[in-house]
Amino acid sequence: MNGRNADAHAAIGNARLQPGSEALSRRSFLIGSAVSMGALGLAGCATTDGLSRTEAALMYGPMPNEKFPIPAVDLSQVDPKYFRRTVRYESKEAPGTIVVDPANYYVYRIEGDGNATRYGANVGRSGFLWSGEAYVGRKSEWPTWTPPAEMIKRQPEAAKYARGMPGGLDNPLGARALHLYQNGKYTLYTIYASSAPETIGTNLTSGCTGLLSQDMIDLYARTPVKTKVIVLPA
């Protein structure tokens, strides 16, 4: 055997797999591929916030039994981080208290034991944000919307509703509203149901706070009159 052949055989010998190593390598590849494919499959079934798309579709599905049937939310227009969920939220406030966090576009309902139900929201635009404490002085289903005089001055087209716009899907207050009071007086601010999913996570209103209709109906059902509401600084 000449030197060249010796070198060739040495190279082949060094490259030869140890017993069982080929099977192990193939098995590792198959397992890795299966994990990768499984991850891709799961990615198609879950939102980025851990809520499955099936769960989200059920949570935000149509509500045909309402006075004005509410359609399903177009989930493609909502960042999944704004979907309703239970989160850790340390607070000294009593269970049931509502905390509005306009800086992060969330509304929290304190549940106790360090937990809260969190809802995505739209909030007041620049110049209309406010903070402080209030309470729910009145609740209404499919409320009439009456634009305040200040709004009519800014937006004269709202004058046609000066005597009130009847409840309905086109009404800005939507299916439910919690009217906020201070010292026995209506502040003109509400937490209301929005039928525009693309507005969640934006600064849109004249100081009111909007939730998806399905979320607002959930919060409304669990919020009695006199509930404390805290609006944090933006």
TrEMBL record:
GO terms for cellular component: extracellular region. Keywords: Cell shape, Cell wall biogenesis/degradation, Glycosyltransferase, Hydrolase, Peptidoglycan synthesis, Transferase. Pathway: Cell wall biogenesis; peptidoglycan biosynthesis. The keyword Cell wall biogenesis/degradation applies. PROSITE patterns: LD_TPASE (PS52029), TAT (PS51318). Residues 96-232 form the L,D-TPase catalytic domain. GO terms for molecular function: glycosyltransferase activity; peptidoglycan L,D-transpeptidase activity. The keyword Hydrolase applies. It comes from the Bacteria. GO terms for biological process: cell wall organization; peptidoglycan-protein cross-linking; regulation of cell shape. InterPro entries: LD-transpeptidase, LD_TPept_cat_dom, TAT_signal, Transpep_catalytic_dom. PANTHER family: L,D-TRANSPEPTIDASE (PTHR30582), L,D-TRANSPEPTIDASE ERFK_SRFK-RELATED (PTHR30582:SF24). Belongs to the YkuD family. This is L,D-transpeptidase. It comes from Alsobacter metallidurans.
